[in-house]
Design brief:
mainly alpha, about 110 residues
């Protein structure tokens, strides 16, 4: 499903979980997203795979990995302005900023 291959990110490294989660979100895949509201079907409970090798291993072992990545990206986008947040992130990555400098997850509700 990889999404960043079709984006010009100027060589920016994007974690595989974000790439796959964004692809699920853009495709609106009902296997991994709820139709409305908080779109999460599976809450990510542990760090998600960063490299392609880690992703392939994790997603092969547990198909819910896609839903967890989609949840993380969906919640981030929802908190940061939706589609515009994704556009801004892509622009900043393309301008040479590091993913860790432009992507911030909101603190978990407690």
């Amino acid at each position: 499903m990889a999404c960043s291959q079709s984006l010009d990110l100027n060589g920016a490294e994007v974690p595989q979980w974000f790439d796959e989660g964004l692809a699920v979100l853009v495709s609106d895949d009902p296997r991994y997203l709820a139709p409305t509201g908080d779109r999460c079907l599976v809450d990510p409970r542990q760090p998600l795979p960063v490299t392609l090798e880690e992703w392939l291993r994790a997603a092969s072992a547990d198909p819910r990995t896609y839903a967890q990545a989609a949840c993380q990206v969906s919640r981030w986008a929802g908190t940061n302005g939706g589609k515009e947040a994704v556009r801004t992130l892509v622009e900043r990555l393309s301008a040479g900023q590091a993913f860790s400098d432009v992507f911030r997850m909101p603190a978990a509700a407690g």
